[in-house]
Structures are given as structure tokens and as C-alpha cells.
From TrEMBL:
<keyword id="KW-1015">Disulfide bond</keyword>
<protein>
    <recommendedName>
        <fullName>Pathogenesis-related protein 5</fullName>
    </recommendedName>
</protein>
<feature type="disulfide bond">
    <location>
        <begin position="89"/>
        <end position="99"/>
    </location>
</feature>
<dbReference type="Pfam" id="PF00314">
    <property type="entry name" value="Thaumatin"/>
</dbReference>
<feature type="disulfide bond">
    <location>
        <begin position="172"/>
        <end position="188"/>
    </location>
</feature>
<feature type="disulfide bond">
    <location>
        <begin position="202"/>
        <end position="212"/>
    </location>
</feature>
<feature type="disulfide bond">
    <location>
        <begin position="159"/>
        <end position="242"/>
    </location>
</feature>
<feature type="disulfide bond">
    <location>
        <begin position="192"/>
        <end position="201"/>
    </location>
</feature>
<comment type="similarity">
    <text>Belongs to the thaumatin family.</text>
</comment>
<feature type="disulfide bond">
    <location>
        <begin position="164"/>
        <end position="225"/>
    </location>
</feature>
<keyword id="KW-0964">Secreted</keyword>
<dbReference type="InterPro" id="IPR037176">
    <property type="entry name" value="Osmotin/thaumatin-like_sf"/>
</dbReference>
<feature type="disulfide bond">
    <location>
        <begin position="41"/>
        <end position="252"/>
    </location>
</feature>
<dbReference type="InterPro" id="IPR001938">
    <property type="entry name" value="Thaumatin"/>
</dbReference>
<feature type="disulfide bond">
    <location>
        <begin position="104"/>
        <end position="110"/>
    </location>
</feature>
<dbReference type="InterPro" id="IPR017949">
    <property type="entry name" value="Thaumatin_CS"/>
</dbReference>
<dbReference type="GO" id="GO:0005576">
    <property type="term" value="C:extracellular region"/>
</dbReference>
Length: 255
């Protein structure tokens, strides 16, 4: 199993919403899942969180995470949702503003998903209905903006590392590139977003695993990041499972 070395001097950012579930519901701590979000980037990121099926909102939906800092978020049993990094953000005192990548309706606190292209960490944590097994992955199906890694700790089962360490912005084909006002590549689109065809989007006549195969573009992603989802039906090599684990999500992992 691959491992991810954590920085020695990581600081914990002051985020009072991080442990809301554990603090308000102490009896639930034993069955909760703790997510530690670490920023190893040389720049700040603004993590966004989105919970599925009416599940508890973590970290108020989004917050500022300076380089070299970490925040812990505690989720109830059976939680499902996603995390992503927003970059190049500017917000006013009321939390209104804009991000260069991963923006969610111009707000610090996200109530919906981030605008692609964006790297995603996706989770469904264990409950009685799924045998108390967690499912997780790092997905490039919606494109890429920053490297991201997920490491399981303290669990049982395969508990493999999921993630994308490579800098895909530097290797992004010209036709998929997203550039900022200064001309720097800040994100890499998926082929679906760039061309909107059934072949690339796994829709229409290509809507099943048998009819939607890897493409030249998804193979660029897969070759660079073999432990991340590269297209919609990349399940076999990209979905990880673990039981009773906690997870460290690292932005800009080094290995």
C-alpha cells in the first residue's frame, strides 16, 4: 500500500466549525469519521465541502486553509459527500467573492458543487446498510485543478491510498487548458467538458461500461495519476474500501 508522508510542522487552522458534530453530539464520536484536511501547497486553498442526501454539512461548506495548516472535520456515521480545493480566491468580509478554480456560486460557504474543472475526493462512509464499509476515491472525471491525496488511518481492509500527485496543469493538452488573467494554466478540463460528446461524456450510445472506453485524454490523466478516477467507468482501479477508518486529505501531496 502506498503511503503519504505528512509534513512535520503542520499547524491546525482555527476553524470553530470543524468539530461541531463531535462537540454537540459527544455520544456519536465513537461511530464518527474524522477527516483531516492538510494544505501542502505553496499557496492558500479554500476547501469546499458538499454533503449528499441531506447529510450533515461539514466545515460550514467551505473555509480558508493557509499553506502548512490543517483542519479536522468530524462526520456522522453513514455520511457521504465530496471535498475539493478552490484556488485564487478573494472574499469580502461577508464571505462573497470569486475563485479562479472550483468556485461555488461566489461564496465562501458552498451549498453546491464547485465549478469544473476541479479535483474531487469522494466518500461514502460506513453504515449498517453497507456493512460498515467506507468507499472513497479521488476523481478527475470533472477535470483537475490541484493535486490531492487520501490516506486511510486506523481502519481494516484494503485501505489503499487514492490520489493524484502529478502536476497535470503542467502536462495538460492545450485544448483542455484553463488559464488565468496572467496566462498561467490553473486547471485542466476533462474531455467531456471541452468537447461535450457522448464518447467523452459516457452518455447516449456510450452510456454503459461496455460502450464507454478510455480515450486518449483519459489515458493522459490515468498515466499521470494511476490511483485516481480518469473517466466515468474507471471503477475497478480507482475505488478504495476500508472499514472504521479516519482519513487524511492532502492538497498538493508530494508522494
Amino acid at each position: 500500500m502506498d503511503s503519504l508522508k505528512c509534513v512535520d510542522s503542520v499547524r491546525y487552522a482555527d476553524d470553530s466549525a470543524s468539530a461541531w458534530y463531535a462537540e454537540d453530539n459527544p455520544s456519536n464520536v465513537a461511530s464518527a469519521t474524522v477527516f483531516t484536511l492538510e494544505n501542502h501547497c505553496s499557496h492558500a486553498v479554500w476547501p469546499g465541502t458538499l454533503s449528499g442526501n441531506g447529510a450533515a454539512v461539514l466545515g460550514d461548506g467551505g473555509f480558508h486553509l493557509p499553506p502548512g495548516t490543517a483542519v479536522q472535520l468530524t462526520a456522522p456515521q453513514g455520511w457521504s459527500g465530496r471535498f475539493w480545493a478552490r484556488t485564487g480566491c478573494s472574499f469580502d468580509g461577508a464571505g462573497n467573492g470569486k475563485c479562479a478554480t472550483g468556485d461555488c456560486a461566489g461564496g465562501m460557504r458552498c451549498s453546491g458543487g464547485g465549478i469544473p474543472p476541479v479535483t474531487l475526493a469522494e466518500f461514502t462512509t460506513g453504515s449498517a446498510g453497507n456493512g460498515n464499509k467506507d468507499f472513497y476515491d479521488v476523481s478527475l472525471v470533472d477535470g483537475y485543478n490541484v493535486g490531492m491525496g487520501v490516506r486511510a488511518t486506523g481502519g481494516s481492509g484494503d485501505c489503499q491510498y487514492a490520489g493524484c500527485v502529478a502536476d497535470l496543469n503542467g502536462a495538460c493538452p492545450a485544448e483542455l487548458q484553463v488559464r488565468d488573467g496572467g496566462g498561467a494554466v490553473v486547471a485542466c478540463k476533462s474531455a467531456c467538458a471541452a468537447f461535450n460528446t457522448a464518447e467523452f461524456c459516457c452518455t447516449g450510445d456510450h452510456s454503459t461500461p461496455q460502450t464507454c472506453s478510455p480515450t486518449h485524454y483519459s489515458e493522459i490523466f490515468k498515466n499521470a495519476c494511476p490511483r485516481a478516477y480518469s473517466y466515468a467507468y474507471d471503477d475497478a482501479s480507482s475505488t478504495c474500501t476500508c472499514s472504521a477508518s479516519h482519513y487524511t486529505i492532502t492538497f498538493c501531496p508530494t508522494h
